[in-house]
Design brief:
The structure is a single chain. By secondary structure, the chain is of the alpha/beta class. It is built from 6 helices and 15 strands. Strands 4-5-6-3-2-1-15 form a 7-stranded mixed sheet. α5 (193-201) crosses α6 (219-231). The protein is globular, with a radius of gyration of 18 Å. The two termini are 20 Å apart. The relative contact order is 0.16. The structure holds fe (ii) ion (FE2).
Length: 270
């Protein structure tokens, strides 16, 4: 019985191969779980593709159950169109019976641990804007691949649902209230503002030729998570989004490529 956690995948799943993640040998998908802290980015295109089907089936055959919170880089409308079902005390979108999206503001009990989840984040690769696929078509063609412009395209590579709604935030507060403001783990994509500040001073997230994205890029969500953090008793907080890995606070862990055991792992360690 185990829980492992990892960070952003961006449609690249080699870290879950048996060679890269040998701990899966002997796992049982009813008892062993790997949680992705957002930006799985498997559901991405305008409609289901053979790529998506291949990888959903690949995950379904794994000897562990794959769970993920949403990041900013997901096709949110399509993700939320998958069937909702109950799982471990909370609600999930079921992509496959053992590939499940952990929804915003839910509390699960997995392997005897309480896990509160809250996906979403403000993209920080849109300095040059979110462009309209029709009105800005010429500019998109010019900028695509020039390596100079940070932009995304509305409804094609960016969706406004990357940031949570007021209702989702309120739901999260109600869930924590019902849980007595206590959980074992937080799994989110974004980080609380105090943790973002620590990382910002360390130059995280690194961006080639640019200063680190400040917390202003996701201020409302960071502030919301900070409110929760200051109010809750918890053991560990796992998050992604900033494309690095390190312990960021006393109990807060930024994850990226490593898959670590939730209970005693250290990001970037063996
Ligand atoms: Fe990411």
């Amino acid at each position: 019985m185990s829980i492992y956690v990892t960070g952003d995948c961006h449609s690249s799943f080699s870290r879950f191969s048996t060679k890269a993640f040998p701990e899966q040998k002997g796992m049982d998908r009813e008892k062993d779980f790997v949680i992705v802290c957002g930006d799985l980015a498997l559901i991405w295109d305008q409609e289901e593709t053979s790529f998506e089907r291949y990888w959903m089936d690949w995950f379904e055959k794994k000897p562990f159950t794959t769970l993920f919170v949403d990041g900013n880089h997901e096709n949110h409308p399509r993700l939320s169109a998958y069937p909702v079902r109950d799982f471990a005390g909370g609600r999930v979108h079921e992509l496959r019976p053992h590939l499940l999206h952990l929804m915003r503001g839910e509390m699960y009990r997995i392997c005897g641990k309480r896990i509160f989840t809250f996906g979403g984040a403000r993209s920080h690769d849109i300095d040059d804007g979110v462009l309209d696929p029709v009105e800005d078509a010429a500019r998109i063609r010019r900028w695509r691949g020039d390596g100079e412009h940070d932009f995304r395209v509305m409804g094609v590579s960016w969706w406004p649902q990357e940031m949570p709604s007021e209702e989702e935030m309120a739901h999260g507060l109600r869930t924590l209230e019902a849980a007595g403001w206590e959980t074992d783990y937080f799994v989110t994509h974004e980080a609380p503002s105090s943790i973002r500040k620590i990382l910002q001073e360390e130059g995280i997230p690194k961006r080639a030729g640019k200063s680190p994205a400040g917390i202003s890029s996701g201020e409302e969500l960071c502030a919301y998570l900070e409110t929760i953090r200051s109010r809750c008793r918890y053991r560990k907080w796992f998050f992604g989004h900033l494309h690095d890995e390190r312990q960021a606070g006393e109990r807060e862990y930024l994850l990226y490529h490593s898959i670590i055991p939730a209970e005693d792992g250290e990001p970037g360690g063996e």
